[in-house]
Design goal:
The chain has 104 residues and is an alpha/beta fold. The protein is built from 5 helices and 4 strands, in the order ααβαβαβαβ. It has one domain: NAD(P)-binding Rossmann-like Domain (Rossmann fold, 3-Layer(aba) Sandwich), CATH 3.40.50. A 4-stranded parallel sheet has the order 3-2-1-4, with helices on both faces. The radius of gyration is 14 Å and the shape is globular.
Length: 104
């Protein structure tokens, strides 16, 4: 059976990550923000983890408001060097989706 892309399904091409949760550490600014923006644009629910939760929250709001594909972003305070915090973030993301894509 042909995949949605092979059939030319415009919806899957417009939002290839629809229904997926992506965790982006350091996503408040810089390269992490760019990764988060792309995932949101591709329809994912992005959880931005950053030590600077204020900037992460502002980034998440901006990305969500500019998403036309159904993607959205949320922010969590996260010190990626703290294993317990990382595991908590993964658990939170896992509770929101069947599968999670992890990017750093």
């Amino acid at each position: 059976m042909a995949s949605a892309d092979e059939r030319g399904d415009a919806t899957s091409r417009a939002a290839p990550l629809a229904g997926q949760v992506a965790i982006v550490t350091g996503g408040a600014r810089g390269i992490g923000r760019g990764i988060a923006a792309r995932f949101v644009r591709d329809g994912a629910h992005v959880v931005i983890g950053d030590r600077d939760v204020e900037t992460a929250t502002a980034t998440a709001a901006e990305l969500t408001s500019s998403a036309g594909s159904g993607g959205r972003a949320d922010a969590m305070e996260l010190d990626a060097a703290d294993r317990d915090q990382v595991e908590g973030m993964v658990d939170a993301a896992d509770a929101q989706a069947v599968s999670a894509t992890v990017a750093t």
